[in-house]
Amino acid sequence: MISLRLHLRRMPEKPEPWSGYNIGMDTVHGSEPSRAEIDSLQGPALVEFGAAWCGYCRAARPLIASALSGAPPVRYIRIEDGKGRRLGRSFGVKLWPTLIFLKDGKEIARLVRPENPGLIQRALENICKDA
């Protein structure tokens, strides 16, 4: 009997779900909101487009969490993006993660593949002014 061993990147037995609730944050469960729903949001909001398997997205998660922990309350929506997903296309998302900072449904700032929590924090402060 021949035994073959494949050296594949080890995936966690129970991967982190892309959807779920974080403290004080909204996330999408299974289906994405429509563009009209996003455009009608009131107050400050952060919409993150990415994919659960994306290495850049996983690397950005602690940076986003760090920035959000020091920010005023912000509606935070994580959206699983990919082929055939219209919402990401409607925002012109080309790379993941893309963070879109909204105030009353209007885009105020955008960060693509953020590497610095300070940049995220500044964008959050900008959308939270006078909120």
TrEMBL record:
Residues 5-129 form the Thioredoxin domain. InterPro entries: Thioredoxin-like_sf, Thioredoxin_domain. It comes from Nitrosospira multiformis (strain ATCC 25196 / NCIMB 11849 / C 71). Pfam families: Thioredoxin. It comes from the Bacteria. This is Thioredoxin domain-containing protein.
